Structures are given as structure tokens and as C-alpha cells.
User: Fold this.
Amino acid sequence: MRKKLIAANWKMYKTPSEALNFVEAFLPLVAGHTRDEIALFPSITSLPTVIHRVRGSNVAAGAQSMHWADEGAYTGHTSATMLTAVGATHVLIGHSENRQYDNETDERINLKVKSALSHGLIPLLCVGEQKDERQCGKTEDVLVSQLAGALAGFPKEHADRLVIAYEPVWAIGTGLTATPETAEETHLMIRTHLEKHLGDVANEMRILYGGSVKPDNASALLNQPNIDGALVGGASLKPDSFAAIVKY
Ligand code: 13P
Assistant:
């Protein structure tokens, strides 16, 4: 069975002391919770603080983005080598906000996924369609194209470590959630596509849902057979709210 992964994407929120306050309050709320994996994605300035505090607990920590090169003249960026050096285990790649604001292309995402895997990080590859793309029936085309771009020349032997996060752009930060049925149907389509290209390993790969996941809709979403976890934005900023989602 696929162990679910419940992940908190804090985006550009929380200073190191705010992040530390969260972790202090959150760890007791999920102590002993082994049914699911839990991961926090703080901003880069809070990442070492969070990693230090969760060490030895049932909570992992990762970065919200990374560069594909190991080092170089890339002002403002962070490499997989640097992330693993501070103890990060996971990394988000291709979030729709990076695709929208930071010129994140499928080609760059592809290089980043490969770099993350080769350094032993667990990448959470984000894909998702815009509202108008869903409305005119292009969801499958968009997702297949994003997956094909991101996974071109992908090393199949690492496939079981790759996590896909399906985040419909129209559901991010809007309070609109894909219904459990729509999300399940889309996850199944993604898995079928992965199976076609990567083989049976697709059944071991986790596909998370993201987009306005809240304590009151988490259970209906996470009980769908092909939804293997959640990537939570706004509702992950408060310890009790994120703990309630973890314990859906
Ligand atoms: P919200 O949960 O705030 O909609 O954000 C989802 C998201 O973008 C997680 O990566």
C-alpha cells in the first residue's frame, strides 16, 4: 500500500522564530502518528531551524524550490547539494506559482527533478491546469504535456521516489476545491499515464492533491483510492489546522 504524504507548503510566510513556534506547537499534536508521512516546506531562511527542531521526530522537512546545477553563478538560488548538506530530504518542484511568476519551464523542471533524485532528495513535482483549460476540456492534454516535459529522459529506477502533486491552479488559494470525484478521476488519469510510460512502478508512486485542502474537506479527498496525500497551503500555517488535516 502507498503510505500517504501530508505536506505543508508555507510559501512566503513565517520568519525562523515563527516557524519554530509552529513546530513546537505542532510536534505534540502529531506525536506517535505513523499512519501517514508528514513534511513541512518552510521558506529557505527557516529551513535549517525547522530541520534542526524536527530531527528525530515523525516530521520531515524540505525546500520549496531548487536550482538544477550543483553550484555556479546563479544569484539567489539554492542547489540540491546545499539542501542535502543542511539535512533537507524533500523538495517542491514546478509549483504553479513558480511557473507563473519565476519563468519555471518544463525544461527547467525536468533538469531539477533529475538533479533532486540524483542527490537523494524526494521531489514533489507539481502539475495542474488553469481554470479555462479545464472549462474547455483540455485538462488531460495539459497534464500529459506537463508530465512528459518534466519526465523526459527520466531515470526509471528512481521512479518510486518521485511524488506527483496535482494542484489545479483554479483551486489554489481560492477556497474552491476539486470535488473528491473530480480529483480522483484526474489522479487516476495521471496514474494511467505514468503507468504507460514508467510501467508497474506507477502503482507505487504517490499522487498528492493540492488546492484549498482544509480540515473539513481533507477526509473526503484523502479517502479516494488514488489520492495519496495532500499538499496544503493556507490551512497548513496554523498547527491545529494542519494537525487536523494530518489526522483526517
Ligand atoms: P492552498 O491550500 O492555500 O490552496 O494552496 C495550495 C498550494 O498551492 C500548495 O502548494
Q: What stands out?
A: Strands lie at 5-9, 37-41, 59-63, 90-93, 122-127, 163-166, 206-210, 229-232.
